[in-house]
Amino acid sequence: MDKLLIRGGRQLRGEVLVSGAKNAALPELCAALLSDRPVTLHNVPRLNDVTTMLKLLRNMGVAAERDDGGTVRLDAGPLHTPEAPYELVKTMRASVLALGPLLARFGKARVSLPGGCAIGSRPVDQHIKGLQAMGAEIVVEHGYMVASIAGGGRRLHGARITTDMVTVTGTENFLMAAALAEGETVLENAAQEPEIADLAEMLIEMGAKIEGHGTSRIRIQGVEKLQGCTHRVVADRIEAGTFLCAVAATGGEVLLRHGRADHLDAVIEKLREAGVQVDAVEEGIRVRSQGRLKAQSFRTTEYPGFPTDMQAQFMALNVIADGTSTVTETIFENRFMHVDEMLRLGAKIQTDGKVAVIEGGHQLSGATVMATDLRASASLVIAGLVAEGETLVDRIYHLDRGYDRMESKLRGLGADIERVAGAAEYQP
Ligand SMILES: CC(=O)N[C@H]1[C@@H](OP(=O)(O)OP(=O)(O)OC[C@H]2O[C@@H](n3ccc(=O)[nH]c3=O)[C@H](O)[C@@H]2O)O[C@H](CO)[C@@H](O)[C@@H]1O
Ligand SMILES: C=C(OP(=O)(O)O)C(=O)O
Predict the structure, then answer these.
(1) Catalytic residues per the record (predicted)?
(2) Ligand lying closest to the C-alpha of residue 198
């Protein structure tokens, strides 16, 4: 199993390329299921989640090829098995995104419930409820969602769907299902994340009729058939935000090429209040930091609020910043798994339910720590970059799930970081 060895204390300087967004690429790979025509995606990040999703699609009979330049070519024309088996979905939440498109195009699907994850319980009840409102019959048996069209029909029908809470993948499943349903679907309480808007743009390129994406009400007029398309995956705002935090912590100056400042308002505002200079420039985002920070309190909320996927990385800043701060996690009930590992590095943090109180201003000292989930891993890397001495981050398969060659990007900026022991986890 690979580990990352970091020798802290170096400033970050130079340029780094922000990759395509994991959370846009995964639904967009599933969107290819909606058509029997070829779909080409550019700017697909090199992630283990993408590899897993391609395996899942190939297992269904989809022809899928990827090249080293980030282009993936898919053809779901030959699809023969509308199924997502447990072995392939257990490591990846996004596999639930196969359900909507398969049901919409084939009128049936068998998709394993996605595996549990260290950040909390992640039910799919809203996905099921919404698709049922569109005419699906879904039973959960032997760990699988077995779905068909009620009354033996051929197509889903439009519906007005109001979810109990804002759900990102739920909104994406409904969007894809509604694109091929008969009649109009209105999604109330829809998620507004940039990845949803990017998916909607791709569906529109395929011939879908969608309005209101990027807002909390999305209207979709179903069509009978979707064509193929060529689409470029939007830049990863969470990867960009992670690099912003890394530079803020170490000090230095970096250009995040292709970074979208307009997708990171809540994070950038907090960074500026912390004393970091962040500018939107033509090429992306420029960040400058002296490494002296003022701690910032924040609470995670749905987009456009502070993203839960940036909570751990920003907490790493609060640990070293001057002052006491509180971080409130409102989206997932168990997303403070990085706290115990940060304590090993010398942080002072107390948690009580969804609130963490951080007493800042402490010099961290390197130690062996264990990554518990994707963003927790990233926060430990940031902490390791400023800790005195060596930090060894274990179980970085979590990191490889969602960051595109993070250690080589950091090394390119001057960090002393290397991957040790075991073969690279990434498989093309
Ligand atoms: C692949 C992908 O895009 N993953 C992102 C997506 O996850 P994901 O789409 O799984 O997260 P959701 O937006 O659905 O979850 C929001 C909240 O709703 C709850 N919920 C959700 C669905 C449901 O049927 N029932 C239910 O109770 C969840 O447990 C959670 O408490 O959005 C999260 C919140 O921004 C991000 O952290 C993940 O990176
Ligand atoms: C929680 C995340 O991803 P996933 O939903 O794929 O587990 C994340 O990207 O931080």
Answers:
(1) 117
(2) 1
Closest ligand (CA of 398): 2
- For residue 157 the two structure tokens come to 């029908």
* Dist. CA 367 → ligand 1 center (Å): 32
29 and 88 housed in the same domain:
yes
**Looking at the structure, do residues 28 and 175 belong to the same domain, yes or no?**
yes
Let me know if residue 428 belongs to a domain: no
**Annotation-wise, does 322 bind a ligand?**
no
**Range of the structural domain that residue 30 is part of:** 22-232
Distance (Å) from CA 77 to ligand 2 centroid: 29
Compute, in angstroms, the gap from residue 225 CA to the centroid of ligand 2: 31
DSSP string across 196-261: HHHHHHHHHHTT-EEE-TTSS-EEEE--S----EEEEPPB-HHHHHHHHHHHHHH-EEEEEET--G
pLDDT digits (tens, 9 = 90+) for 88-112: 888 888 999 999 999 999 999 999 9
**Atom number, ligand 2, closest to the C-alpha of residue 309:** 10
Mutate to test the pocket of ligand 1, among 23, 162, 168, 234 (most ligand atoms within 8 A of CB): 168
224: how many CB neighbours lie within 10 A of its CB? 8
Contact between 231 and 202 under an 8 Å Cβ cutoff? The reply is yes
User: Closest-lying ligand to the alpha carbon of 332?
Assistant: 1
Total of domains in the chain: 2
Q: pLDDT, tens digit, for every residue of 230-273?
A: 999 999 999 999 999 999 999 999 999 999 999 999 999 999 99
| 144 and 46 belong to one structural domain | yes
* Residue 11 and residue 42 in one domain: no
CB 113 near ligand 1, within 6 Å: no
- What is the pTM assigned to this prediction? 0.97
In-domain check, residue 354: yes
Q: Are residues 79 and 180 in the same domain?
A: yes
Say if residue 22 carries a ligand binding annotation. yes
pLDDT digits (tens, 9 = 90+) for 342-380: 999 999 999 999 999 999 999 999 999 999 999 999 999
Tell me: ipTM over 0.95: yes
> Can you say how many angstroms the Cα of residue 64 is from the centroid of all Cα atoms in its chain?
22
Strand order in the sheet with 184-188: 160-162, 184-188, 218-221, 209-211
d(C-alpha 362, C-alpha 344), whole Å: 12
Domain assignment of residue 249, yes or no = yes
> Residues with catalytic annotation?
117
Mean pLDDT of 305-330: 98
